[in-house]
Write a structure and sequence with these properties.
Helix content: 55-70%
Strand content: under 5%
Radius of gyration: 33 Å
Structural class: mainly alpha
Distance between the termini: 96 Å
Number of strands: 0
Low-confidence stretches: none
Mean pLDDT: 83
Largest sheet: none
Order of helices and strands: HHHHHHH
């Protein structure tokens, strides 16, 4: 049973040109598109593109590229690379969110400190300052900032038992209120 491919790194016996061709294949998405891009690499990407084009070298034939693809498991490795790239993107997104939340928390703390200083000096802080920072913080936490954004998941029509209970509560409340009205006269 062959060993499953689990690497996106250069494989044993894979040349630099073959590995670079695999990277081009990953970007292009197919062998045909990779061959089409082969001559264009390095023309408008600057220094890095020129270096990449040099590593690609002379364009091989279709059959050579297909042989490399099978020999070095390009399809399987591309799937692994896509999963790795997605994981890296998710981690980067988490880091950006963490940093952004931290900055907002620091801003919230700074405004809070200013407001506390004003309070100690018997000055009135503005509610608007508090509101703006609070809303920023709520948005970053993914929480609602007003009633229209509140979400109630468990709303459903009343059951017959709930209707009976509600009627009894209403009647009891009405009785208590009528008794209080009688006491006040």
């Amino acid at each position: 049973m062959p060993t499953p491919i689990t690497t996106t790194q250069k494989m044993p016996k894979e040349t630099e040109q073959q590995y670079t061709a695999w990277l081009l294949y990953c970007e292009a998405g197919s062998l045909q598109k990779a061959l089409g891009l082969w001559d264009k690499v390095g023309q408008s990407v600057g220094e890095m593109g020129v270096e990449f084009a040099e590593r690609l070298g002379k364009k091989p034939s279709d059959t050579t590229l297909e042989r490399w693809s099978k020999q070095f498991h390009w399809v399987e490795r591309r799937e692994i690379k896509l999963a790795e790239d997605l994981t890296a993107l998710r981690e980067k997104t988490k880091k950006i969110k963490r940093n952004k939340l931290h900055k907002i928390a620091e801003a919230f703390d700074r405004v809070g400190t200013k407001i506390m200083k004003r309070l100690k000096a018997n000055e009135e802080p503005t509610i608007l300052e508090w509101k703006i920072v609070w809303e920023m913080f709520q948005v970053e936490l993914g929480k609602p900032t007003n009633r229209s954004q509140l979400k109630v998941d468990d709303q459903h029509p009343l059951t017959p038992e709930e209707k009976i209970r509600g009627k009894k509560i209403y009647e009891a409340l009405e009785k208590v209120l009528n008794e209080e009205d009688g006491d006040q006269e």
